[in-house]
Task: inverse folding
């Protein structure tokens, strides 16, 4: 939530943030103690450059109230996910798309629940 807030303050609207926390516990004299937290963060933020995303992630990590409360070291790996570019169509695929669009344009328009335009059945309401 802190990362989403930092990104919004920077003027971006994150669409998805996936975070995984790995906690390190150690047995010390006082008993089992949380000594570290590692965060793996992958986010999709439209139009956000990598540098602004990393800045927001670092601000969120340093201002984390949980790590201050637990006195744990926090490490983080943050990655900005990009949408994959569309793969170009082959000649054959392109030809099929064009032919399908042409065929769709040639089909007669159908009136709502009435069959082809001009061949509409008369109902009791029409009489």
Result:
């Amino acid at each position: 939530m802190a990362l989403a807030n930092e990104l919004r303050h920077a003027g971006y609207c994150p669409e998805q943030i996936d975070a995984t926390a790995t906690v390190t516990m150690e047995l010390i004299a006082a008993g089992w103690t949380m000594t570290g937290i590692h965060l793996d963060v992958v986010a999709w933020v439209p139009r956000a450059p990598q540098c602004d995303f990393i800045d927001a992630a670092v601000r969120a990590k340093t201002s984390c109230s949980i790590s201050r409360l637990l006195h744990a070291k926090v490490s983080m790996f943050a990655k900005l996910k990009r949408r994959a570019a569309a793969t170009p169509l082959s000649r054959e695929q392109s030809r099929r798309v064009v032919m399908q669009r042409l065929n769709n344009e040639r089909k007669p328009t159908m009136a709502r629940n009435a069959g082809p335009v001009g061949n509409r059945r008369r109902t009791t309401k029409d009489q």
In short: The chain is about 35% helix and 30% strand.
